[in-house]
Every structure is written in C-alpha cells, then in structure tokens.
Amino acid sequence: MDRDQKAQFVEEMKSDLAKAPIVILTDFKGSTVAQMDAVRRACEPVGVRFRVIKNTLCRRAIAGTAMESLGELMTGNIGVIYGGEDPVAAAKVFRELAKGNDKFAVRGGYFDGDVIKGDKILAVADLPSKEQLLSTLLATIQEGPRQVLGVIQGPARDLLYVLNNYASKLEEG
Fold this sequence. Notes:
By secondary structure, this protein is an alpha+beta fold. It folds into two domains: 3-127, Alpha-Beta Plaits (2-Layer Sandwich); 128-173. The chain has helices at residues 3-19, 33-43, 55-62, 87-100, 130-172, and strands at 22-27, 48-52, 79-83, 105-111, 114-117. The protein has a five-stranded antiparallel sheet, sandwiched between helices. Strand 4 (105-111) and strand 5 form a beta hairpin. Helix 1 (3-19) packs across helix 3.
C-alpha cells in the first residue's frame, strides 16, 4: 500500500467504525486460512464484517474518537469485528465462533459508548435482540391504555351485574 491508499483506507475505516454499534477486537494467533474464512462467512449473514487490520492504521482510524483507548489493545495480530444493525447479533456470532475455535479469543471491544476490555464484551451476547426489546417496549406502552380502559369500563360492567342480579330476583319472586 502506498501513502494515498493507506490514507483512503484509514478514512474508510474511520467512517465504518463510527457507524458501528459494536466493535470487537479478536486474537486469532495460530488460526488457519480456512478458519479465518469461516469467520468471515459466519459474520456476513448478520451484516457484520471481520477484517484483519494493521495496528497502526487501525489506531489512526480511531484517533480522536471515543474508541481511542482501544489502541492499547492493538498489539500483535488482531482481527476486528464491526458493523451490523444489531450489536447483540454480532456478539452472539462471535461467541459461537469462539466456542468452536480455541485459537480465536476476544481482547476487548467497544459497545454503547464504552470501551470494554477482555471477555466482558461477550456479555452483550446475553442481552435480548433488538426485535425482542422493541416487542417488550410495545407491550409496555400498550399496557397503560389497556388498564385505563379496564378502569373506565368497570362502573358500567358493575352496573350491568347489579341490574342482571336484580332482574333474576324479580323473575324468581
């Protein structure tokens, strides 16, 4: 890569990482090319990218951002998993990949404005998905009006029960 290509690559990475809801730094020392290709293919269905990036270029891409402290984790060979619409899905994919490959480990990451070191980034995989959170929110929003409607209908319903009971007594007597 010449200087212009490196500058273009850094700008591209800076824009991609700025849009990414989650960034996971991985250690893949000892992995084969086939294993790395499998990682890339596993990331594609959820819209996540896996790239092996030169540390200095990656540090330049995150310089001046909230992710800047990730730079201290960038030593040796690193792979970067980033992007996607759903950060939970990306974390789940990584967790599944790490289970199947003992040479594939997490160094840290960036999620929700915080730099997270070590395996703590995998806790994101335990969160509910975006769809589950939205359905829970919708159910919570709908519950208030449902309860208000029950309270409003209560007196009319109670009056109907009283009148029905009174009518039953009149028929009997």
